[in-house]
Automatic annotation (TrEMBL):
Lineage: Bacteria, Bacillati, Actinomycetota, Actinomycetes, Streptosporangiales
Protein location: Cell membrane
CDD domains assigned: PBP2_NikA_DppA_OppA_like
Keyword GTP-binding (UniProt): no
Stated name of the protein: ABC transporter substrate-binding protein
């Protein structure tokens, strides 16, 4: 799933100094990796209201169908629920379903929890579940979650508390999606009545989760209030109300967190880490997130493999880790980061170690460019100015390219333009390279690598390789973890050879919240699990 993580910025890297020089001159950057937090003391005190900032800004909707961007998914994860949920280590935990049977390769029989009610008190029925899933599959809705159902034949209610999914072909990924917004359940009658207003500030949503929408004052805040009738009586949220603000400027975010006007935020600006580290809990967690460059146009200046190899060689990976991420990231040899190896780790590790280590080599880049005449043509690199790190990375890459004899023209995008890149071919017209940050929905490398199969919606470069496609298709139908990992790494090696994208780094998840709070541990799955239920007072 592409990560439309949007955060605004007022200034980007000034001048043309190298990343390392800028870091050393400032004296505040460090290459030391942060300590990963895996647990926090459980909260014991009740809190009336926690003010939480959304750095991407105000969400365009609270419709689960659009929950692939952080401004939507961060609040919605506390409101709407799927059939299952992710545990701390991405283990599958029961939610609106208690279990499922898999009697054959093509059938999933899901047993729904009895007695669950929507916020308005109406019971959740199999019809609500089937409706919710089918609704997201309507192409007119434009949900990015539609992709999971490519091999689905049917979904229907088959009992008073049962639904059955039939597949056209085996697909080992399906059970993972049961814990994602692809299976978030909304009330059918409410959604049909709301129509196009569903998820808007004027109408809202109707779900089952631990928090319900209390108010949405556009341009100011969204307030969630605790659902005291939540079915999960084992968990009693300590926070009564969560108020989301929409501060997008990094300097303003830092000031609000420092002053206490805002109690917490995910994805705190790197420049604020030193200032905030003694003001509360600044915590880091393992990430399933890669930052990379997609080679969108393989017919222009980058059509020669030598030109793409030169691009890979000119990137200052160490400088980016040190200066841009202040040590809170790791360079990548492959698109999918090691933290996302949820199985077959020995297989993945062996294949990963055989890939070239990411290292800047300007002399190599110059030599490759000299052998590829087209590489000296104009290359347009698009990136969003709404993400501080990516603005700095884009600037650094353009500077290094100039030193190597390659002409990269930067195309800064507004948050809106950046979002359009993921859905509109017209928005991508004239762009050769696209710098973006994505995330995997769960630790299964196959989920990301399948995006680059021939004809896939997210295959923006229109990359097509029969060997690659065959390896991915084989992996999707392979239940044995080690055997599946071997097929996935086969595709990974092909991708690395063809350089359809250039991996740069995987950054740690970070969260900050004030000292009076406790409980919340930073994990990538905050996007799909009710993280506010873990937060409370000391």
């Amino acid at each position: 799933m592409q990560r439309s993580r949007l955060a605004a910025i007022t200034a980007i890297l000034a001048g043309s100094c190298t990343l390392a020089a800028c870091a050393d001159g400032g004296g505040s950057a460090t290459a030391a990796a942060p300590t990963v937090t895996t647990s926090m003391p459980a909260p014991t005190g009740d809190v009336d209201t926690v003010t939480w900032n959304l750095p991407p800004g105000e969400p365009p909707t609270l419709d689960p169908a659009q929950s692939a961007i952080e401004s939507v998914s961060t609040p919605l994860a506390n409101m709407c629920e799927g059939l299952f949920s992710f545990g701390p280590n991405y283990e599958r935990e029961p939610a609106l379903a208690t279990s499922f049977d898999h009697p054959d390769d093509l059938t999933y029989v899901i047993h729904l929890r009895e007695g669950v009610k929507f916020w308005d008190g109406k019971p959740v029925t199999p019809d609500d579940v089937v409706y919710s899933v089918k609704r997201l599959l309507d192409p007119k809705l434009g949900s990015s979650w539609i992709g999971w159902a490519e091999r689905m034949r049917s979904i229907e209610a088959t009992g008073s508390h049962e639904i059955t999914i039939k597949m056209k072909k085996p697909d080992v990924l399906i059970p993972n999606f049961f814990s994602t917004p692809a299976f978030d359940v909304v009330e059918k009658a409410f959604a049909e009545s709301a129509g196009k207003s569903f998820g808007t500030a004027g109408r809202g949503v109707m779900c089952t989760g631990p928090y319900k929408l209390a108010s949405w004052t556009q341009g100011q805040n969204i307030v969630l209030t605790r659902n005291d009738a939540w079915w999960n009586t084992r968990v009693k949220p300590k926070v009564k109300n969560v108020k989301f603000t929409f501060i997008t400027d990094p300097s303003a975010q830092t000031a609000a967190l420092d002053s206490g006007d805002v109690d917490g935020q995910f994805n705190v600006p790197r420049a604020a880490h030193v200032r905030l580290k003694d003001k509360g809990h600044l915590l880091f967690g393992q990430s399933l997130s890669p930052t990379f460059i997609s080679v969108l146009n393989q017919n222009g200046a980058l059509s020669d493999p030598a030109a793409r190899q030169a691009l890979q060689a000119l990137i200052d990976y160490k400088g980016i880790i040190k200066s841009v991420y202040q040590g809170a990231a790791q360079p990548l040899r492959a698109l999918v980061p090691p933290a996302a190896w949820g199985y077959g780790k020995d297989v993945y590790q062996q294949a990963y170690d055989q890939l070239p280590a990411p290292a800047q080599d300007l002399e190599k880049a110059k030599s490759l460019i000299a052998k590829a005449p087209k590489a000296k043509g104009k290359i347009v690199l698009a990136y969003t100015t709404a993400i501080e790190e990516e603005s700095r990375i884009a600037t650094a890459i353009a500077d290094a390219a100039s030193q190597a004899g390659m002409h990269i023209q930067l195309r800064p995008l507004t948050a809106e333009q950046y979002g359009a890149m993921f859905s509109s071919p017209q928005a991508r017209a004239g762009v050769d390279l696209f710098l973006s940050t994505g995330y995997l929905d769960f630790p299964e490398p196959l989920t990301y690598y399948q995006f680059f199969t021939t004809g896939n919606f997210y295959n923006f470069p229109a990359y097509s390789n029969k060997e690659y496609d065959a390896a991915i298709q084989a992996a999707i139908a392979t239940a044995d973890p080690a055997a599946r990992a071997r097929e996935v790494t086969k595709a990974q090696t092909i991708m690395a050879r063809d350089l359809v994208n250039v991996p740069i780094a995987t950054q740690y998840v970070n969260v900050f919240y004030k000292s009076a709070l406790t409980g919340l541990v930073p994990r990538q799955n905050y996007l799909y699990t009710p993280w506010a239920t873990t937060l409370g007072g000391k």
